């Protein structure tokens, strides 16, 4: 049972936390924070880290088959960036008191979530363009406001990540632009890839606001700054002129701008598909997890060797002292 002094201290701590949030200040790892705030951040940041790491797979699939040396080196750099994003984010989550091992175990045992978008296949080169343009584009809309997230290590990690994401989006757009201004077959390939990725990228913003119960709390804590629907609107508004520049059609025949409300009116998102993929029954869920698990097992000797080396260095320093 909490003593009276503990309760008083807790109230004072809560007041200090609330004041920092109200004042747009940052919460840092050693600051007191409500347990629910900590748990929410651990869940969100680790899911985000897992998404970066699993997200390497659909594109790594094309590294050996990229159409030129230049494309290959750009794609390798992009996939490497995603590994880096995973590392910053795992490190940010670790400051909240969870270990890297706990997070990895949750992922490979299928207990943790990652973005559903990476459970789709990438059958053609044009998918590299569509992922960069649409998936990284949607990620940017989601992530730019996270640079101001109230938790310091998360916000700071996002600043660097967002800079790299804008390069990813440009390289995707550029792949699609080349294809859509190439032969009729290439243009068709670009259109097919965009048709495949458009709707799943709209789903990346999550359920509509009235079906998203946790959002309000995250907004009050200033982790999240805009609602799912607001971000989806922003993304669609960004895509429309770019569809035109690409000379490709938007797969949503109902999409139009409503002057009166200042909103984009969109066709119905297939939420049943979203739920299926989320529940682990998407086109590539099992494959993605299997691959991640195998990579973890195959890398066991590297972790053991690194730990043995670190121990050896520590012993050497101790004897020298
Ligand atoms: Fe990323
Ligand atoms: Fe990216």
Automatic annotation (TrEMBL):
SUPFAM superfamilies: Ferritin-like. The keyword Phosphoprotein does not apply. It holds the Pfam family PaaA_PaaC. InterPro entries: Aromatic_CoA_ox/epox, Ferritin-like, Ferritin-like_SF, PaaA, PaaA_PaaC. Keywords: Oxidoreductase. GO terms for molecular function: phenylacetyl-CoA 1,2-epoxidase activity. Its EC number is 1.14.13.149. Coiled coil: none annotated. NCBIfam families: PA_CoA_Oxy1. This is 1,2-phenylacetyl-CoA epoxidase subunit A. It comes from Leucobacter manosquensis. The lineage of its organism: Bacteria, Bacillati, Actinomycetota, Actinomycetes, Micrococcales.
């Amino acid at each position: 049972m909490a003593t009276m002094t503990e309760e008083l201290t807790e109230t004072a701590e809560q007041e200090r936390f609330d004041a920092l949030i109200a004042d747009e200040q940052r919460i840092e790892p050693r600051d007191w924070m409500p347990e629910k705030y900590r748990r929410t951040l651990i869940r969100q940041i680790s899911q985000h880290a897992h998404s970066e790491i699993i997200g390497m797979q659909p594109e790594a699939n094309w590294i050996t088959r990229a159409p030129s040396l230049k494309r290959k080196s750009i794609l390798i750099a992009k996939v490497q960036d995603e590994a880096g994003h995973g590392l910053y984010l795992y490190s940010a989550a670790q400051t909240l008191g969870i270990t890297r091992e706990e997070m990895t175990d949750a992922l490979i045992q299928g207990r943790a979530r990652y973005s559903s978008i990476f459970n789709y296949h990438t059958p053609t080169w044009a998918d590299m363009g569509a992922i960069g343009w649409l998936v990284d584009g949607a990620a940017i809309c989601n992530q730019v406001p996270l640079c101001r997230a109230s938790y310091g290590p998360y916000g700071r990690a996002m600043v660097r990540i967002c800079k790299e994401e804008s390069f990813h989006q440009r390289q995707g757009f550029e792949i699609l632009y080349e294809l859509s201004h190439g032969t009729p077959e290439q243009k068709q390939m670009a259109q097919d890839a965009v048709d495949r990725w458009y709707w799943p990228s709209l789903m990346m913003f999550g359920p509509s606001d009235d079906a998203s119960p946790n959002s309000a709390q995250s907004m009050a804590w200033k982790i999240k700054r805009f609602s799912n629907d607001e971000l989806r609107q922003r993304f669609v508004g960004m895509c429309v002129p770019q569809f035109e520049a690409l000379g490709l059609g938007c797969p949503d025949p109902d999409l139009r701008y409503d002057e009166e409300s200042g909103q984009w009116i969109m066709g119905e998102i297939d939420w049943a598909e979203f739920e299926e993929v989320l529940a682990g029954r998407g086109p590539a869920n099992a494959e993605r997890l299997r691959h991640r698990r195998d990579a973890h097992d195959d890398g066991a000797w590297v972790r053991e060797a690194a730990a043995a080396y670190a121990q050896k260095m520590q012993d050497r320093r101790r004897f020298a002292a």
